[in-house]
Design a protein that fits this description.
Elements lengths: L1 H14 L5 H52 L3 E5 L6 E6 L9 H4 L1 H8 L24 E2 L5 E4 L3 E3 L5 E3 L16 E7 L2 E7 L5 E3 L1
Antiparallel strand pairs: 1-2, 1-5, 2-3, 4-7, 5-6, 7-8, 8-9
């Protein structure tokens, strides 16, 4: 009985010593290797989710611009990188599609037209005759996402989508053969929000 007790005490004393320095170093090395493998993958996942969220936000704003044009019977434009990089806003034409106001068309006034201090959202009054009275809020991309390629879109009350052409006072339809692509980029990866002549959108 005494011998068994001594053996048990010896076993407990040996197990109480724990891990050796070599064991601990190997464990830390294994954890470090796993972290080195997992962190880039996790970062790529987060970047992809962020890019997807911003692409869907732009797609929603395109759909809202078209709906706004149809329901208010007023042409609405969606401008990108306006008033500065990473911002976008839907704005009502102050003039008409055949005779735009200076603030509608001139590039040096585009930033002013997107400025929510000069043209607040919601509008300063509810008078339907006042223009502009149907601007949307100024939107901003996540700081990690940028616009790679954009084109100002114009939505008519009949639901069609138009793009700028310097040769015409009224902007021409989006070509059925070549839909407009709004490109968003993050960490070297791009997503495209495609818009056709009828305002149908698709994220690729």
């Amino acid at each position: 009985m005494e011998g068994m007790l001594k053996r048990n005490i010896a076993w407990l004393s040996g197990s109480a010593r724990g891990f050796s320095l070599v064991d601990q170093m190997l464990t830390l090395g294994l954890i470090g290797t796993l972290c080195a493998i997992a962190v880039p993958s996790l970062k790529n996942t987060i970047d992809g989710q962020r890019l997807g969220m911003e692409s869907r936000a732009v797609e929603r704003e395109i759909q809202l611009a078209r709906l706004n044009a149809v329901t208010t019977n007023r042409p609405i434009r969606l401008r990108f990188n306006c008033p500065s990089a990473g911002y976008y806003r839907r704005v009502e034409l102050i003039g008409s599609v055949n005779s735009p106001n200076l603030g509608d068309d001139a590039d040096n006034r585009a930033a002013v037209r997107c400025n929510d201090a000069t043209y607040p959202f919601p509008a300063a009054d509810n008078d339907p005759i006042t223009k502009p009275n149907n601007d949307g809020p100024k939107m901003q991309l996540n700081s990690k996402v940028t616009f790679g390629a954009t084109q100002t879109l114009e939505f008519w009350p009949n639901g069609t989508v138009h793009v700028y052409n310097a040769a015409n006072a009224a902007w021409p339809y989006v070509s059925p053969a070549t839909p407009v692509n709004i490109i968003l980029t993050s960490a070297g990866v791009s997503r495209s929000v495609t818009v056709n002549v009828l305002g149908k959108t698709q994220i690729q």
